[in-house]
Amino acid sequence: xxxxxxxxxxxxxxxxxxxxxxxxxxxxxxxxxxxxxxxxxxxxxxxxxxxxxxxxxxxxxxxxxxxxxxxxxxxxxxxxxxxxxxxxxxxxxxxxxxxxxxxxxxxxxxxxxxxxxxxxxxxxxxxxxxxxxxxxxxxxxxxxxxxxxxxxxxxxxxxxxxxxxxxxxxxxxxxxxxxxxxxxxxxxxxxxxxxxxxxxxxxxxxxxxxxxxxxxxxxxxxxxxxxxxxxxxxxxxxxxxxxxxxxxxx
Amino acid sequence: xxxxxxxxxxxxxxxxxxxxxxxxxxxxxxxxxxxxxxxxxxxxxxxxxxxxxxxxxxxxxxxxxxxxxxxxxxxxxxxxxxxxxxxxxxxxxxxxxxxxxxxxxxxxxxxxxxxxxxxxxxxxxxxxxxxxxxxxxxxxxxxxxxxxxxxxxxxxxxxxxxxxxxxxxxxxxxxxxxxxxxxxxxxxxxxxxxxxxxxxxxxxxxxxxxxxxxxxxxxxxxxxxxxxxxxxxxxxxxxxxxxxxxxxxxxxxxxxxxxxxxxxxxxxxxxxxxxxxxxxxxxxxxxxxxxxxx
Lengths: 250, 294
Fold this sequence. Notes:
The structure holds 2 protein chains of 2 kinds. By secondary structure, chain A is an alpha/beta fold. Chain A contains 10 helices and 10 strands. By secondary structure, chain B is an all-alpha fold. Chain B has 2 domains: 1-46; 52-291, MetI-like (MetI-like fold), CATH 1.10.3720.
């Protein structure tokens, strides 16, 4: 049983054909890295899974994207509930201008939960999950902006975890972070894998190699190769993949 | 290229640099100087009549003596009334335009219309207000007619500043909120508006500054030439500072004798606008700090 499947997916921005016949199947509790040069469609592809592309006017999706066997582009799918199941972490840390506590509680509150002790408990577990608790437990009422960039990004991950998604999408989550914070986030991704299915877009080849189980290489809107990360990095079947990961183009 | 030539080029470059620097700075100081001259002129001419009585007493002896109390109160009422109308309408319209309408022909039309509205001369607003509010709707010359007319005038400014404030809110905040399963309305209410609030409030207050100094829109809709009592309801006429200034400078009973009062009135008007602008800055700072926290 696959967690995520995309079957013959095409995506259009107006007349531009941004994704061409993408077939990918992702197993649960794995990390999948999407790599490729800028503009290859990997971020667009990632944003199909929580229908974030819906926010852009003039776009069109063809084909099927299944999560837990259900086509999320079928008629009558509730996008809000889909997004509860599929959390997202962005390129730049973007905590809300609220307290540390309220940032993590936000997803619960907008989903109609008002039980105070439940929220407190869930906020604590979520912050512990991202190994931030020791650093922030005494300043939960302080603004999230007072945290460092790396802490903010982990807080954003905690914010996504609080509503207990089963899939987490990460769009270049460490590109704005220093090496130490990056290492912490990567470690975290490795731990989160036991509970969640993670899809990560990254420009950093070493990162893809370190954190992912499978890797998909995109080029000009096409999926060139999708395989175990080990194979992609040591023995890719396509020459283009070989050239990209060895830095000969990209 | 030898050193001599190099030196020439460097020297030429330096000269251009310093000419540019001096012309820019001279021009900016010139602007400051003009403002300073106007302000000190008004203060110099007007400060003599300023007293507690001047701002708390009725005009006397054909407006050549006494105070300007009813005009101050009238202006405050008009500002308040126009904001009660323009703020909710303008802010909601801006939210609709920026958060709901997607880019396209409809948005372009609304935007163009708003810009056109901002370019309509204020006397035209006055004329429109007179025919609609005063005559058609039968409000007569009244606070409500004047407030609505001033409100219409302020509307495009309110819409535009609110829209700019919403535009300044980074899109990833919206995406993060929607990504957590929040609806669009919740996202606007809980994330977008709190972030945009300091800028929105500043825009609103600055439009208060603009409204309080307008003369033409109140000319036919509310302003009284002379009214030695305060209004008792929204259907009453009032005096107002800018119109009072106009009246005693052009068609008072004794223009020469009321000259000092005219400068005094101008000074009070300027001080009010100045206070409003300082208030806008203070509020922006205050709420700006609060946004981090709320």
